[in-house]
Amino acid sequence: MKFDFDAKYFNPEHTLECGQVFRFTPVDGGYAVYSADKACLVTSDGKKTVVESNDSDYFWHYFDLDRDYRQIVDKAKSYNVPLLSRSAEFCKGLRILNQNREEMIYSFIISQNNNIPRIKGIINRICEGLGENIQTERGGYFSFPSSAAIAKADVSFFKNAGAGYRDIYLAETSKRLAAEGIAHLENLNAASLKCELLKYKGIGPKVADCIALFGFGKTDSFPVDTWIEKVYKEDFKGELKDRQKISDFLLNEFKEYSGYVQQYLFYGKRLNL
Predict the structure, then answer these.
(1) Average pLDDT of 29-52?
(2) How far apart (Å, rounded) are the C-alpha atoms in residues 57 and 221?
(3) What is the pLDDT of residues 128-170, one digit of tens each?
(4) Are 105 and 212 in contact (CB under 8 A)?
(5) Could you give the CA distance from residue 144 to residue 164 in angstroms, rounded to a whole number?
């Protein structure tokens, strides 16, 4: 099954390479994308972006295709921040994904003080070691394992997967998620969700904001990392030093659009727009 979408507002490269997701692989003409136990192939000719999958409904939602990004792009430009305006225009095809929530908790614990190739490698090894081997007509892949499966692994498994000091975070958080689930996190507002996420082993403020935004769709979240600190100092002429205070300042500026603005600013700065 396949569907297509206007490439102007769905650019696979900008959507996948902007740091919000780690389970994808470049292939000829596009990307193989994996989420939970699902997979799809995404290609684009610059006019139409095509998604091929055995679960079209899942990936229609995953790529947030019911949302009108024209309005989001126009709103971003209306703030009259030069970098934001340039990035929103250049990256108008960047979409915030609706990713699997538990997968995002583990992925962003792994992401802290890490680089993207290494993050992807650790996640792949966890999937290969604990996930299900799924075969399709386009080939095989491993699912992201359930919390129950992850919780059965000992600390040495995560160490051997390359997680480093994060091994204990993954071991302890997986046991808690396997026991409690995440239903109690589902309907919280962004601020309450962040407070709850901070109670998990290995989740600090920036990781909590990333999980809230990329896993729970809380667009009134503003993760602050080295790139956003650079944006704040250079493009907003800010003088705050504390990342939480920087996040609070930017959140107050952009409110429910914060998540979209953060991605435009983050990716735009990385691309040197």
Answers:
(1) 96
(2) 26
(3) 999 999 998 778 999 999 999 999 999 999 999 999 999 999 9
(4) no
(5) 20
Q: Tokens at residue 47, please?
A: 């006019």
Question: What end-to-end distance do the CA atoms of the chain give, in Å?
Answer: 37
127 and 120 Cβ atoms separated by less than 8 Å: no
Burial of residue 156 (number of CB atoms within 10 Å: 0-12, 13-18, 19+): exposed
- Distance from C-alpha of 20 to C-alpha of 28, rounded to nearest angstrom: 22
C-alpha pair distances (Å), 148 with each of 31, 83, 104, 215: 29, 44, 16, 19
> 179 exposed, middle or buried (CB, 10 Å; 0-12, 13-18, 19+)?
exposed
Q: What distance separates the 2 farthest-apart alpha carbons in the chain?
A: 55
C-alpha–C-alpha distance, residues 7 and 69, integer Å: 12
pLDDT tens track for 5-26: 999 999 999 999 999 999 999 9
Taking the model in full, what pTM does it have? 0.94
Distance CA 261, CA 88 (A): 8
pLDDT digits (tens, 9 = 90+) for 229-256: 999 999 999 999 999 999 999 999 999 9
Residue 236 in contact with residue 56, Cβ under 8 Å? Answer: no
